DNA sequence: GAGTGGTCTAGACCACTGT
DNA sequence: CAGTGGTCTAGACCACTCC
């Protein structure tokens, strides 16, 4: 590799270039969630590098959670629909006090279109007034309501999402599974900002707790490829019978 | 990097055995925090394997946060006293609303001995009635109180810890830095259980907020080598001017 | 048995740090 | 310059899955 003397020489190892190429293939949906990607040898031929170099690229993509290696079978594109054991607690860290981590039941309440206000526009990186889709729903663990949330999505990407679709999809997978399979948008990572708030009458009723009780306010921004924000979510977690678990390392 | 806990490993690759040997050396303090460990070639000779195998063992230990690789210099034992940029937010995820992540000022309030109750005994895995050391302190960001906490430590390990020591150490590093340098106990990972609660009069006064305001209750258990619990901490975070940030991936 | 990922080795060379 | 970690290659062999 030759470097231009006028530009700052930035060294990028070969395996990272391969990783970038594979990222493009993933983003372009050449390989789709749940599918198997070509074998290491095939990829080595395709990119004209050694198998070890392709291997290191795949290793990083797997560490990033984008690929899934299965010895003896192949390497697969990670999918929210995998129903992998980890999927239930990957993004929702709320756990019943007296039980194991479990996937809650989703109860869609409303779904409507709106125009992005200043905050939604800033966070979702769309124009002020651009169409957005808003979902309001409830999550229950063993029949007990634990979460109320409003989810703001850029309307461009999710223009056919409606309450009926949400209801039909109930029990068939997670919300992100729906977004991935029906809209081709895969959430890769998210940031949550957590604060303590007081329940207002409406949400207290939905969560079946008393007004004035403390709740966790969890504000989440989720990102897809290229660190593009595609979801803004404001949730209220009842911690009367559940807790938010975070592992630090 | 991680192995499935549900399946019994039927085969242990060489690099994992090397990793286990290096873990023992770390635990036995043959290599101390902040120090450089032998070079890859030296370790390859010592363990009678190839450099690549030692390399993979080191890679995993570095990924686990136990070692720190510095190209051109060597591999170092990670230390809480490194004052690495990440150290401030590694275990404390509280961030001022209007500023950058920063390390808070610690204000020790009390430090006393006690006997472990049932809960402390269970969590710290010591006998009921065993001696424990309790620290009560306040954390401030830019002079504003944000956290009140009580820290429960097994008395065996920290029998000389007192208020004077805590006060003298103020500003010289983090609490975990003190435990590491003065008591040889290094925290490797922790679990936090987060709930929303209402401030009682005492803690409201300490946090300079009004009684009845909502707070985050953060219960932390920290572990050292061998998943041994060595700290139980109960904290109250004021989220009036701060938020708890969690990155999901 | 064929095909996949996983391990281990040996050697060459590159990039970074300090002397 | 020497010493360190970082990259890349090529090949042999092992472990796992499925036909």
SSE map:
The structure is a homodimer of 249-residue chains.
Chain A: H1 14-27, H2 40-47, H3 51-63, E1 67-70, E2 74-77, H4 87-90, E3 94-96, E4 105-115, H5 118-124, E5 131-141, E6 144-154, H6 163-169, H7 175-183, E7 189-198, H8 201-207, E8 214-224, E9 228-237, E10 242-248
Antiparallel strand pairs in A: 1-2, 3-10, 4-5, 5-6, 6-9, 7-8, 8-9
Helix pairs in contact in A: 1-3, 2-3
Chain B binds a DNA duplex (19 and 19 nucleotides) through α3.
Description:
Two copies of one chain form a homodimer. By secondary structure, chain A is of the alpha+beta class. Chain A has two domains: 14-77, Arc Repressor Mutant, subunit A (Orthogonal Bundle), CATH 1.10.10.10; 87-244, Chorismate lyase (3-Layer(aba) Sandwich), CATH 3.40.1410. The first copy, chain A, is built from eight helices and ten strands. Chain A has helices at 14-27, 40-47, 51-63, 87-90, 118-124, 163-169, 175-183, 201-207, and strands at 67-70, 74-77, 94-96, 105-115, 131-141, 144-154, 189-198, 214-224, 228-237, 242-248. In chain A, strands 4-5-6-9-8-7 form a six-stranded antiparallel sheet. A two-stranded antiparallel sheet of chain A has the order 1-2. Chains A and B meet through strand 7, strand 8 and strand 10 of A and strand 7, strand 8 and strand 10 of B. The structure holds a DNA duplex (19 and 19 nucleotides).
